[in-house]
Design goal:
This protein is an alpha/beta fold. 19% of the residues lie in helices and 40% in strands. A 5-stranded mixed beta sheet has the order 3-2-1-11-12, covered by helices on one side.
């Protein structure tokens, strides 16, 4: 069983409250808009990290992390990108990739809106953890925590932080 912490849109912000959850995970996945690489350096010092760059990320982040990250976690195929859209309206860049070879989990960030929903057409779970950074229009900062056990995706939890103001 692998305990996953999924976050996005840190926009250069990380604090001890976030790192407390990082320490409890087996792996951390970051769905882009990292901002300062100090964020990912702090995470990597504690746990293995899988990440993608987002639209605000600079050349350094784009050299360290890919635009798309397709990987296996146990027996679950995962596809992560920053800007991806939602079922059934994926953006043009991701729609064909999903259609050709649907993952079991499709992850994106960007919208700052937490959303987890099934896509029955492609038999996948779409996850957007919302935004855990303090920059943006969101009032509640959010992350997701879940486990992968073989082919099972279980124990999904939303982690909320107080309003950012």
């Amino acid at each position: 069983m692998t305990k996953i912490l999924l976050l996005s849109d840190t926009h250069s912000y990380i604090d001890e409250a976030i790192l407390k959850h990082v320490k409890k995970a087996d792996e951390v996945w970051h769905a882009g808009d990292i901002g300062d690489l100090e964020v990912t350096d702090k995470i990597k010092a504690l746990k293995p990290l899988r990440a993608v760059y987002g639209n605000i990320d600079d050349a350094k982040a784009r050299l360290e992390f890919p635009e798309n990250n397709r990987f296996m976690c146990e027996d679950v195929d995962v596809f992560m990108t920053h800007i991806g859209g939602y079922p059934p309206k994926y953006n043009m860049r991701t729609r064909d990739l999903i259609k050709e070879n649907p993952p079991r989990i499709f992850i994106c960030g960007h919208s700052h809106i937490l959303k987890v929903m099934p896509d029955k057409r492609y038999n996948l779970i779409h996850m957007n953890p919302g935004a855990v950074g303090k920059h943006g229009f969101h009032n509640v900062r959010t992350m997701l925590r879940f486990t992968i056990d073989g082919t099972k995706i279980e124990n999904l939890e939303v982690i909320e932080f107080p309003k950012r103001y």
